[in-house]
Amino acid sequence: MPPWLSVTILVALGVALLLGMAKGWRRLNRGPADVPAPPTVPADADLGEARTEPLAATYVSTTRAGDWLDRVGSHGLGVRSAATVQVWTSGVVVRRRGAPDVFVPRAALRAVGTSGGMAGKVVGGEGLVVLTWVPSPDDDPRGLETGLRLRHRQEADVLRAATQTLIGSTPAASGSEESS
């Protein structure tokens, strides 16, 4: 095979690869109509009483509930980042470095559990804390799942227990699943 043909084939493959990556990134960053923006984080005075200290974590990603590979990219929800997570009486606040903060109001929480992985991170075992929530009542009742990898295992237990307390004190929405 002549060298010019080899180079042409490699360039064509490279261009096809770049176009496929661009198409995938556009799919990931779906428009705001597809997934509503999460609520803005209220001022600390409006959050109520702190139920945990700020816990060091890695925000892994947010996916559609029930499909751990369907990452939501809009509103910065697909950006993996270092974070601190704290449970307040009004909800769960995830303060992220280099990405928008995420606030999950108590009324939006549906379940808290663990998982071995989700889009962006596979840790094995049950190393991720997963919050299942519905951004607004008009949305898909399955909602979204947000994965957090806590720095220390005992902190993951604290986060799950405090979040479970919030869910237990919130009237269940129709069609919601039980917390695991």
Automatic annotation (TrEMBL):
Give the matching InterPro entries. PH_bac
Q: How is this protein named in the record? A: PH domain-containing protein
Describe the location of the PH domain by residue ranges.
Answer: 37-161
